[in-house]
Write a structure and sequence with these properties.
The chain is α/β, with parallel strands linked by helices and 184 residues long. Helix 6 packs across helix 7 and helix 7 packs across helix 8.
Length: 184
């Protein structure tokens, strides 16, 4: 899938990790997208309200400084109802994925993710020769890891509070956090 997408397509990339944004932005530009970046909800809104063209595609990080990328779905749809929105997150969970799709996101991908998977998610349904690739189900250790990460985030990174919420001994939780499952 290393081919160009045809005519340049407008894309907004919203992620507070500047290194990740830079690398992904360059990779998407090389694949025919015209990329504009923002590092926050406010930055994205000023890009949307600016004089530039409306985005046809959007890549949103779920966790932005002081806000959620989900807040941008409505404004993106107002600017372009056909905008293809892909949500990225380091803390994937089924409830957040369902919530994102209900709010209007088209795809939901867990970081780390390869550029080709992002491109497939962006063009799925817009490119006649794009075929959905069946994804493998997550392993039990991966599901446990994702759940722990979600609860850890909900508790502001506090390991003691997370251990209590998970009804787990603090040391057990610390050992699990050190053992990142394959594919996580």
């Amino acid at each position: 899938m290393g081919r160009h997408i045809g005519a340049s397509r407008e894309l907004i990339l919203v992620d507070d990790d500047l290194v990740f944004s830079g690398v992904l932005g360059r990779a998407l530009s090389a694949r025919g997208f015209r990329v504009r970046c923002a590092g926050s909800v406010e930055g994205a809104l000023s890009v949307l309200d600016g004089d530039g063209p409306r985005p046809d595609f959007a890549i949103l990080d779920l966790n932005l400084p002081g806000a959620s990328g989900l807040q941008l779905i409505g404004p993106l749809r107002e600017h372009n109802a056909a905008c293809r929105i892909v949500l990225l997150t380091g803390y994937a969970s089924i409830p957040t994925a369902v919530g994102a799709i209900k709010l209007g996101a088209d795809e939901y991908l867990a970081k780390p993710v390869e550029v080709e998977a992002i491109v497939r998610a962006l063009v799925r349904g817009t490119d006649p020769d794009t075929h959905a690739i069946p994804e493998e189900p997550m392993s039990v250790p991966r599901i446990e890891w994702e759940h722990i990460q979600r609860v850890l985030t909900e508790n502001g990174g506090n390991i003691s509070a997370t251990a209590r919420a998970l009804k787990m001994h603090r040391r057990t939780l610390q050992r699990k956090l050190l053992k990142r499952p394959q594919g996580a």
